[in-house]
Design a protein that fits this description.
13-stranded parallel sheet, 2 domains, mainly beta, 2% helix, 428 residues, 1 helix, disordered N terminus
């Protein structure tokens, strides 16, 4: 059984300070704020519920959660506070549902040294730092911080929409980002570094100021599974992974289009690394990225390992695939990158100059690569699914692990269809 707290709109602060071992009744103090200082007594409660409140113009956070008794924050307006709208730390556990969190002077939600957080069906916008910021610094914290962010609108924040920046020596952050709309943030849509395990699935990430998703240079490379997202119209790359290793999925089955720079970038040309990048980039549809002389479809500037396979890469500004050493790619379909639209299959090779244009100056395509029109259904309306006659159908690598499993969106036989509608993670 939980207990419910409903305060007047004149409330200036709610502080839940629930240390381990405290249970039961509610104690409040009245100074210049209304506060829940501790939970005491013998009656055990499963959670604290804060519902239908407006919390604003506090010097510090609107709500601060501490301790291991979960708090549920529901249908609240939390805005214009001096630091975060919601601050979760010291083993705090929180579920935030259907809240409006906006115009706070730091993050909308700040999570630091907490235990678990779920943020769902909320609007998080116009905060001075990230919409959601995750920090870890204490070496003695041994647990994994689990954060799930699902079905939210996260937009117009002055830095990233979501930012996970644990210190290298801290324990892992397990961050799951599912089915959110993340857009028009001043910098990145999603930004992670160091000891973070990122699962980003089914998000709409668009029109952010620098990049859609960025995995920053890290001492401990993040583990990344980025799949079934639409990443578009960002004023930089769609996805930029400086360091990182693939989890169970890697970077797969994303629609990546109309970003100002490259669709997918790995590493930094000015500072390549060899040990901190190991990625699978498969079954993505990467279209019309780049502008003003920059922007490949998929680019690897690192000396690390990437496997670029079963992708469709078309109409990108400078080239289709660009990698150090002209290696690491096979079974991709490329077309009209660098404004070269020659269509050939493997039995009728493209002219040498056209092939080099598709592969960033490299001579010779990889095994199974095609240079051919993918025959998108309606590209003018950003529908990059495949027509029935598409040469990308049944043209991916013929191994069971890559087989199509969902019909539709996949077509033809079970052999892998190139692009986002193919393979075991196919997406409409």
């Amino acid at each position: 059984m939980g207990f419910m707290c409903k305060f007047l709109l004149s409330i200036s602060l709610v502080l839940i300070s629930m240390a381990t071992g405290f249970h039961g009744g509610l104690k409040t103090c009245l100074t210049d704020c209304m506060a829940m200082e501790s939970i005491s007594g013998n009656t055990k409660h499963d959670f604290a519920l804060i519902e239908d409140n407006e919390l604003y113009e506090n010097d510090l956070a609107g709500i601060r959660i501490r301790g291991n008794i979960p708090a549920k924050i529901k249908k609240c307006r939390i805005h214009s506070n001096g630091t975060a709208g919601i601050f979760v730390d010291r083993e705090g556990c929180v579920i935030v549902t259907a809240c409006n969190i906006f115009s706070n002077k730091r993050a909308g939600i700040n999570i630091s040294e907490a235990e678990h957080a779920v943020i769902e069906e909320s609007r998080i916008y116009k905060n001075k730092m990230a919409g959601v910021r995750i920090l870890r610094s204490r070496k003695e914290e041994t647990h994994i911080l689990k954060v799930k962010i699902a079905n939210n609108r996260i937009y117009l924040n002055d830095q990233a929409g979501i930012r996970s920046v644990p210190q290298p020596e801290s324990n892992k952050v397990d961050l799951t980002v599912i089915a959110n709309a993340i857009y028009e943030n001043t910098k990145a849509g999603v930004s992670v570094k160091n000891n973070t395990r990122l699962t980003a699935r089914g998000n709409q990430i668009h029109d952010n100021g620098t990049v859609g998703i960025v995995i920053s240079e890290s001492v401990i490379p993040p583990q990344v599974d980025i799949y079934q997202n639409r990443v578009s119209f960002n004023r930089g790359p769609g996805i930029h992974c400086v360091n990182g290793v693939a989890g169970q999925v890697g970077i797969r089955n994303n629609w990546i289009f109309n970003n100002q720079y490259s669709g997918i970038v790995c590493g930094l040309w000015s500072n390549p690394t060899s040990k901190l990048l190991n990625l699978v980039i498969a079954n993505n549809t990467v279209v019309s990225n780049g502008s003003r002389g920059r922007g490949a479809g998929i680019r690897n500037d690192s000396r690390g390992r990437t496997m670029i396979m079963n992708n469709i890469i078309a109409y990108n500004y400078t080239t289709g695939i660009m990698t150090r050493g002209c290696r690491g790619y096979s079974y991709n379909l490329l077309y009209a990158n660098g404004d070269v639209g020659t269509c050939r299959d493997n039995r009728d090779p493209a002219p040498f100059w056209a092939e080099k244009e598709q592969f960033g100056g490299c001579s010779g395509r990889g095994k199974g690569d095609l240079i051919c029109d993918a025959l998108f259904a309606d590209p003018d309306k950003y529908d990059f699914s495949l027509q029935d006659e598409s040469p990308a159908i049944d043209a991916g690598k013929d191994r069971a692990v890559y087989d199509d499993t969902s019909f539709p969106p996949s077509k033809g036989t079970k052999r892998n269809d190139m692009g986002a509608t193919g393979g075991p993670y196919a997406v409409r």
